[in-house]
Write a structure and sequence with these properties.
P-loop_NTPase; ABC_transporter-like_CS; ATP hydrolysis activity; ATP binding; binds magnesium ion; alpha/beta; Sugar ABC transporter ATP-binding protein; 12 strands; binds adenosine-5'-triphosphate; Rossmann fold; four-stranded antiparallel β-sheet
C-alpha cells in the first residue's frame, strides 16, 4: 500500500481546549479503498480528531493533506464540498428535512420557475435520491418523511447515500452502530464494505471491537490525545488492541 498516494494525510495535528490537550501531535494516513478503525477509551480524543479533519474544529498545529494538497476547512460544509463526508456521534443530519433534502443539503439544484424565480428542484432531488438509495439497496418507504421520524439505521444509510451520490473522497463515521439494533448494525457494516468496494476509504470510530474487526483493514488506537499505535487487522487481535487502549503495552 505504501506505493499508492494516501487520500488523506494528517501530520502532527493538535487541538487544545483551554488547558486540556484533546489531540496531541497525531499523524495518520488513509489510503484508497481501505477501512480504518479508530479506537480508544472514552475521552481519548477520537471525536476531536475527526472533527479536525472534517472542519468542525480548527487545529492549533499540524497539517491536513487531501489528495496531495494541504487543506484548511472553515466549516464542515466546506470539508464536504471537498469530499469529506462525516457522520457525527453528536451532530446528525437535519432532523426536520426529508432524505432528499439531506442528500442535497448545501448543494441543492435550482430550477427557474415562470422564467423568473429560482426554486429548488424537488422532483430532481427525489428521483436522484431514490436512485442512489436503490443502488445501495437501502429501503426507505416514504422519502418525504423528515429524518427525525426515521430509525437510526435509516439515518446512517441516508448519510452514506449522500457520500456515494457526491463521490466522497473519504467517509468518516463516529460510532455509526452505537444506537442501532442488530439487523441495522449489520446493514451499516455492509454499507461500509460497499463504500470500500467503490474505492471510498472509511474511518470508523467504534467502541465495538467486533464491528471494527469485521470491517476494518487497519486499526489506529488513541490514548489520552495521542496515537498509541497502529496495526494491520491481520497482524493483531482483541487483546493487543485492548492493551494499547488502556496503556498496558509499551508506547510506540
Ligand atoms: N468542545 C469541547 N470543549 C472542551 N473540551 C472538549 C470539547 N470536545 C471534547 N473535549 C474534551 O476533549 C477530550 C477528548 O474528547 P473526545 O470527544 O474527542 O473523546 P472521544 O475519544 O471521542 O470519547 P468518546 O469515546 O467518549 O466519544 C475529552 O477530555 C473531552 O472532554
Ligand atoms: Mg467520541
Amino acid at each position: 500500500m505504501s506505493t499508492t498516494q494516501p487520500i488523506l494525510q494528517v501530520k502532527d495535528i493538535s487541538k487544545h481546549f483551554g488547558g486540556l490537550i484533546a489531540v496531541d501531535r497525531v499523524s495518520l494516513e488513509v489510503y484508497p479503498g481501505e477501512v480504518v478503525g479508530l479506537l480508544g477509551d472514552n475521552g481519548a480524543g477520537k471525536s476531536t480528531l475527526i472533527k479536525l479533519i472534517s472542519g468542525v474544529h480548527h487545529p492549533d498545529g499540524g497539517q491536513i493533506v487531501l489528495d496531495g494538497h494541504e487543506v484548511s476547512f472553515s466549516s464542515p460544509l466546506e470539508a464536504r464540498r471537498q469530499g469529506i463526508e462525516t457522520i457525527y456521534q453528536d451532530l446528525a443530519l437535519c432532523e426536520n428535512l426529508d432524505a432528499p433534502a439531506n442528500i442535497f443539503l448545501g448543494r441543492e439544484p435550482i430550477r427557474r420557475f415562470l422564467g423568473l424565480l429560482n426554486v429548488l428542484n424537488r422532483a430532481y432531488m427525489l428521483t436522484e435520491s431514490r436512485q442512489v438509495l436503490d443502488q445501495l439497496d437501502i429501503k426507505i418507504p416514504n422519502l418525504r418523511r423528515p429524518i427525525r421520524l426515521m430509525s437510526g439505521g435509516q439515518r446512517q444509510a441516508v448519510a452514506i447515500a449522500r457520500a456515494v451520490y457526491w463521490n466522497a473522497r473519504l467517509m468518516i463515521m463516529d460510532e455509526p452502530t452505537a444506537a442501532l439494533g442488530i439487523p441495522e448494525q449489520q446493514k451499516v457494516l455492509q454499507l461500509v464494505r460497499t463504500l470500500r468496494e467503490r474505492g471510498v476509504p472509511v474511518i470508523i470510530i467504534s467502541h465495538n471491537l467486533q464491528d471494527v474487526f469485521a470491517v476494518a483493514d487497519r486499526i489506529i488506537v488513541m490514548r489520552r490525545g495521542r496515537k498509541a499505535g497502529e496495526r494491520s487487522i491481520k497482524a493483531t487481535n482483541d487483546n493487543e488492541i485492548v492493551s494499547m487502549m488502556v496503556g498496558a503495552e509499551q508506547e510506540e
